[in-house]
Amino acid sequence: MDEEWDHLIVLDGCRYDYFSRLHSVHLDGKLERALSVGSNTEEWRDNSFPDRYGDVVYISANPYINSRIEVRGFSGSEHFLDVVDVWDWGWDLTLGTVHPDTVNRAAREALMQYPGERLIIHYLQPHCPYIGMQPQDTGFPVQAPGVRTVLDGTKVPRGTTVREKVVDIITAVTKSSPLRNLDAVNDGHLWLLRERMGLPPETPMDSVRRSMGVEGLRRAYTENLRLVLDRFSVLLSSLQGRVVVTADHGELLGEGGRFSHGHGRREKLLLEVPWFVVKRSSSAMRPRGKPQKSGIPMKLL
Q: What fold characterizes domain 7-133+214-300?
């Protein structure tokens, strides 16, 4: 269902349960559970923004929503008034991600450039890589957009990635039907098989799991969430009107031996996300005419 908002803050891969435990240190307002319309950014994006939203400027740290190139059938410039491609110019090649302070700077500039327009402000955290952990701590190469990474949405031919080769081995050993949807594969089983075969970690999350264990991975995720909560909270005084904090999808952190997220999955921990309405003083509320709908179909629980 559509919800009303003037500015929407999207935390990439933020689970409801973790948000509910941590948000009160940084935020004041009303928290509800919501069901996302996608279990990864691409699915959420396609289901959330089917039309054009001429009063919305999208501040994007995630390459899946951008105005530079069409990513798997979606061109941000066709759906929004403007897309600020923070992922392009603000990517930190040391961290392998976009720091939330960089997103804050882009949002403040957009507020000046587009006074009166609505903003969607999309942070990459708490999605891995985990800020505060140096590349040598995880043993995984630093990611950069434009390279075939887990974040940039680039398609590669079937059979060219190590992941696909391992899936083909699983198919051959189990004599099962070919596994066509790689996102449906249990990452925990796949990562364990890769580790036993002496193959390198597939993702930064897999690398953290290997080096720190499941509990260490959960601590890293928690600290990434604490960081982004702390950093975007300083931006709130600049945002007038109804400000809502939500997420595109959740994350699996070893529950039942499962990790990460993917397209078309229906696990509760991937779909249950926060819908947090920031408490504002009356002086901070933007004068409202007719109700403004979001284009974000989410079911509030």
A: Alkaline Phosphatase, subunit A (3.40.720)
